[in-house]
TrEMBL record, chain B:
It comes from Adonisia turfae CCMR0081. The keyword Metal-binding applies. GO terms for molecular function: 4 iron, 4 sulfur cluster binding; metal ion binding. Coiled coil: none annotated. This is 4Fe-4S dicluster domain-containing protein. Residues 10-40, 42-71 form the 4Fe-4S ferredoxin-type domain. InterPro entries: 4Fe4S_Fe-S-bd, 4Fe4S_Fe_S_CS, Fe-S_Ferredoxin. Pfam families: Fer4_7. Keywords: 4Fe-4S, Iron, Iron-sulfur, Metal-binding. Transmembrane segments: none annotated.
Amino acid sequence: MSADTELNEWLEMLRAPDVSERLVAIKMLQHLGDEDALDPLIAALQDESSAVQKLAVTALWELANPKAVPALVECLASTDEGIREEVLSALGELVTPDHLLLLLDALHRDDANMQLNVLILLRKIHDAQSLPYVLPFFESENPELREAAVTTLRYLNQVERCQEAITLMSDPDKNVRRSAALTLGHLADAEVISSLCQALTTDADWQVRRNAAKSLALHADSTAVPSLETALADEHWQVRKFALQALQKTPAEQTLPALVKTLADEYSDVRRDAAIALGILKSPIALNALQQSLDDPDKDVCIYAQRAIQNIHESTPETSNA
Amino acid sequence: MALTTQRVDVPVIVDESKCLEKCTACIEVCPLDVLVKNPETGKAYMKYDECWFCLPCEKECPTNAITVQIPFLLR
């Protein structure tokens, strides 16, 4: 059978009244990968069967023809969750900066699923022109849209200031605050550091506190040191760990007692980062505590304690000669 | 005593109620050609127990009729 005959046979079957025949036809057209099947496959996105629609999305994804993108964008508002997920994955690979206006148009549609998925796709384009279109979602009543919008902000190039993102640090939804805390790590507003420090020490959700510590590590701002020192006594070990990683970027002599104390933390990850921080601080006062960490049950902690001791000795030659 | 006509302990299990007679997706994607159609029923089945557990048959089936049972030590 020639390729054209085979193609026509499956295209004919795609119009069959029986759903199972249409399913078979789409699967076979997907395997053929013939560009002539593009328009029939786009038409199949409107099929009455959601199974056929989903397979059509997969087939168009494999064909990877940009002509299918507008039709696929329409499917982002599908009522079927499986189709929405498949389209989102497909468009994640197919959208290019050329589709920015198309996506921004779709963002105006009064459909939460469409808006949520478009906000996610805008992260692939990184274009700062999207900012005025994303900002209104910071005040959406839907917490999922607020979270998606503030996360998208993190992916936009050249956006350094956004006062609206700081206000989301006091959002009632913890997921929004978690995303906002990570986004603030990429902004340079004057209030970012104080807002992150407040979240690090007072937020009720430990993941918000941890994300605030992560963002403070990116900023490496010495004014955050007192808050980071307070966070070393946080009840959650991940907050202590990331606070230590932030302190490694901004070594301060005043944190020495708190760092030495965390060398005896119950979690080895925390003890390891404490040893690294003390190695960067290079204070001979920490030598005794680091010597004790050489007997730590965790091998990683021993290695980093040894390196920290070596760092201290190298920075104070008279100590090593003694 | 009842006799079984088909092995049931093969790793690729086809749910015949979902398998489409005209579909050959699983047969085409199998790198070892171990899947065939039963000429009587038109349903796919595993003829040779030589599976690599590579899973395209399960993934490509348009009706999710195929389940590949991966041995415990390969999971």
